[in-house]
Design brief:
6-stranded mixed sheet; 35% helix; Rossmann fold; single chain; 218 residues
Length: 218
């Protein structure tokens, strides 16, 4: 089962005289939804960047399934092990919903037809109906766009999904739909889900809640 672990992680921006993250340790396992809450500027987004391998810790270690990120290829890690879900969806605007989900599989060498078949399965799994497959993101609602974004994350094959305020642009009904999808992926699909959020209701729906303030995690 997937395990993402941080041990005594500190992070300081170049030219700064203070740490943004201070001796952070936590474990997020497959089968669980972990939420990270805290005020703006507390270090939530930096923590997610460290988890995704976009930034390296100044001190401490990040481990995926026991492997230290400092000793593996981070491009491969981001391509195969972790996938990001963003508040602003980050779909390709000139690709249809189906093409957006096909993209990571085609990048990994899958045939066009096989990628299409798999993409349809992923879209169906998040409740996107057939009549939306050929729509561009601008023709989809916010909730639909976020579900397509989740399907695209699944298409990477990664078992760890890192979500940065995934419900921040959604209304209450769509927030519930997205959270139900993420919880199902964790509890039934054994995905490791990490959500950074300001939303108390989203945090309450998680299995584990970490609170961060001034770079300290509790």
């Amino acid at each position: 089962m997937t395990e993402l672990k941080l041990e005594n992680v500190c992070y300081r921006y170049k030219g700064s005289n203070r740490d943004v993250l201070n001796d952070v340790s936590c474990t997020c396992d497959g089968g669980q939804v972990c939420a990270v809450t805290g005020p703006s500027g507390s270090g939530k987004s930096t923590l997610l960047s460290i988890m995704s391998g976009l930034d390296r810790p100044t001190k401490g270690g990040v481990f995926i399934d026991g492997d230290d990120l400092s000793g593996i290829d981070l491009d491969s890690y981001r391509r195969e092990k972790v996938s990001m879900i963003f508040q602003a969806f980050q779909l390709f605007p000139l690709f249809t919903a189906l093409e957006n989900v096909c993209f990571p599989m085609r990048q990994n060498g899958m045939s066009k037809q096989q990628a299409k078949n798999r993409a349809i399965e992923y879209l169906q799994s998040v409740g996107i109906k057939k009549d939306l497959y050929k729509r561009f993101p601008s023709k989809l609602s916010g909730g639909e766009q976020q579900r397509v974004a989740i399907a695209r994350s699944l298409a990477t094959g990664a078992k760890t999904l890192l979500a940065d305020e995934p419900t921040g642009n959604l209304d209450g009904a769509n927030t519930q739909i997205v959270m139900d999808i993420l919880k199902k992926l964790a509890h039934e699909g054994r995905y490791c889900i990490v959500i950074v959020t300001h939303d108390i209701e989203v945090a309450d729906a998680a299995d584990i809640v970490y609170k961060i303030n001034d770079g300290f995690l509790s």
